[in-house]
Amino acid sequence: MADPTPAGDIGPSRYYFEALRAGRLVHQRCERCSSALFPPRVLCPVCSADALRWEPSAGAGTVYSASTLTPRDEDPYTVVLVDLDEGFRVMSVVEGTSAPLGARVRLTPQPVDGPAGDARLVAVVEGGTDE
Amino acid sequence: MSELSGRTAVVGVGEDGVGLAVPGSTPLDLVARATRVALEDAGLALSDVDGLFTASAYYQLPGLDVAEYLGVRPRHTDSTAVGGSSFVSHVGHAAAAIAAGQCDVALVVYGSTQRSDSGRLVSQSEGSPHERPYRPRYPVTMYALAAARHMHQYGTTREQLAAVAVAARQWAQLNPAAFARDALTVDDVLSSRMVSSPLTVRDCCLVTDGGGALLLTSAERAADLRRPPVYLLGHGEAHWHRSITHMPDLTVTAAVDSGRRAFAQAGLTPADVDLLELYDAFTINPVLFLEDLGFCAKGEGGDLVASGAIAPGGRLPVNTNGGGLSYCHPGMYGIFALVEAVRQLRGEAGDRQVRGDVALVHGNGGVLSSQVTALLGTSPTR
User: Fold this and answer.
1) Domains along chain A with CATH numbers
2) Tens of pLDDT along B185-216?
3) Cα distance from B197 to chain A (closest Cα, Å)?
């Protein structure tokens, strides 16, 4: 179920963010060496191939690391690095203070307040651990 | 051993405004005063300087700014910018340039008035669009993520991390020039304000002013100058990532490569090293670097730093000036690690003096990104 490769008149970074704003998490995979790639790019950093295709991600992954910030005038939040099951790593955020390393999480694109109409990935901790 | 080993030497060092600069100073003022101290130390004049190596968070074209201010007209300029490790990088580039005849006397120099500038972190680090929306606090959260992973994977504890800050403070208490000299205990570190877990404010480096300068020249010319030469025996650089999201393994830094390269160039091993100056922007850094540079096995850094080995009187002195945690940290620290190694090897370190002929200086830049290792010694050969 690969997304169609975008036409040559749109850069991969813009394609990624447009998909994210439309509620879809996507990533690239190298046609030659099959490496899952993130962030978006035009060249495979593993094998140098330039044939990369877009694939959807289910957003399911495992917390690789986490750090909780406790600003004075707002609720605490936890910045996480998540290893997606498709084989790439992203930064995300968990509302609150609980994101044990090894926990299973699900990432969902959500709109960010502001005029730009940006989106980001928000992580929700699910049951179980992967380690 | 490489043909570069021992062919160049540090012949002068200088600092200015460490801690808090004269009010109203600009970063270039500190650059100039530190340079003047280093020239006096070496017995050289500005007119001798024909190679310039500098980096800055203030100036986009720092080589041009520094040369204009100082009135030097370098024939070789290198503004390599790899964060706080830049100046350790510059020392290796300067040695290669001198050996290749591109310059005769190299000035490596830095200045920052970060503390005077109301503690605002002056940083050109632009941040990744794939990280900014999650609001990590740059750079502390990035190091906190590495610390959390090391704790998870190897059982490293917050107490062990705190031992790094305590050892640094004990060294600083022996150094009248250090910015932070109050007593500090493990409990103090643990009970301080949490900034980005597991790191408290006492796991984080200082924010100070400071300028530093080094002069290098050929070993032949160094022999005729004022101070005992401190030879560059080995140098290695490596970087594998820019954003913390793309660091392949948060518990292994590119110091694995930079250290191996430096030791190979010098024909030395960790057993030959008498003291270490490790870029300690955060308490997790020396833990990772001691492991990656070969001073203990991966995962054993926590035990090593908590054993007392790195503190005054220990068998493996680390950050003998007090480090970025207690001596100074004006945005980028690498040059101050080099200056301290030179002072130690020349026997000028006063109450904090340790015995030794070989020092390892390790620079870190970005978010555990750039790793640069230099080996300095009192003799050009083993």
Assistant:
1) 12-56 (no CATH), 60-129 (2.40.50.840)
2) 999 999 999 999 999 999 999 999 999 999 99
3) 5
